[in-house]
Amino acid sequence: MRFLMIMYPDRVAESMVAPPADAVAEMMKYNEELAKAGVLVSLEGLHPSSKGARVYFPGGKPKVKDGPFTEAKEIIGGFWMLDVKSKEEAVEWAKRVPVTNTDFVELRQVFEMEDFPEDVQRAADNATVKAAVEARAR
């Protein structure tokens, strides 16, 4: 089962242009452990929210708000996609995330197609989308 492990940075990390090299080295040791254990599917770090935007839909119409965003607890700093045997295993990996400039880590299980009823699986079966995702993964 796959889990998205989302890292929420503290205010210091959100205000940095780049993280310090020692923090990156510590995080890469952790990432290497994930890779060696065979549970790492992908990972990415994100630019600060000052470079981002949010699109809201008040009354069903899109409204754009450029960053930075004021609530640090709502800002995602990066993520890992893990393929583990259980939620408990995902939690154990999350407990090992280096805490430098990290407020908390959230785990969210990813839906697999077999989690849905057959009618939903049929509705989601789109060859164009599948081909685009597979091509991008190569």
| Average pLDDT number | 91
| Beginning-to-end CA distance, first to last residue | 22 Å
Class from helix and strand fractions:
alpha+beta
| Helical coverage, percent range | 25-40%
Helical run tally: 5
Shape: globular
The CATH topology name reads: Alpha-Beta Plaits
CATH class: Alpha Beta
Uncertain residue ranges: none
Search tags:
single chain; alpha+beta; Alpha-Beta Plaits; 4-stranded antiparallel beta sheet; two-stranded antiparallel ribbon; 26% strand
Description:
- The chain has a four-stranded antiparallel β-sheet.
- The mean pLDDT is 91.
- It has 138 residues and is an alpha+beta fold.
- The chain has five helices and six strands, in the order βααββββαβαα.
Report a brief summary of the structure.
This protein has 138 residues and is of the alpha+beta class. The chain is built from 5 helices and 6 strands; from the N terminus they run βααββββαβαα.
Topology:
Elements: E1 2-9, H1 11-15, H2 21-37, E2 40-45, E3 53-56, E4 63-66, E5 78-83, H3 87-95, E6 102-109, H4 118-124, H5 127-137
Antiparallel strand pairs: 1-5, 1-6, 2-5, 3-4
